[in-house]
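sorry for the late reply, my laptop died twice this morning and i had to redo everyting from scratch. anyway the thing you sent over, i finally got around to it. pasting the sequence first so we're on the same page, its 110 residues, then the predicted structure underneath. double check i copied it right bc i was rushing
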Amino acid sequence: MAKRPKNKMPVSDRAKQFMPFAALKGLPEALAAKEKIIVPKLSLSPEKEEELDLKMHQLKHGEIATVVYFCNGEYIKISGMIARIDETSRILQIVHTKIAFDDILDILGN
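ok and here's the structure:
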């Protein structure tokens, strides 16, 4: 019986054949963007503005806060440590995310 030649495939090439294959590059991202529902920015009532102002004045640098804010056609909820409160520039920074005061819808649980 004749022996077959040992033409072993290198390990690096063998691993490539099991890597995930994306036939349509960018399709998952495009589908996720299509699923996003764009909403208009809500305008706050005077009572809600006053309530939000009180909550803003209770915030302190270094505390953990949860903020709901408007960004690019959607409302986002973020939780994290308050890194900066800049009343002159009207910016609240949660970790690395800078949020304009005018975009804040609510501050939760402080």
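The chain has a mean pLDDT of 84.
thats about all i looked at so far, will dig more tmrw
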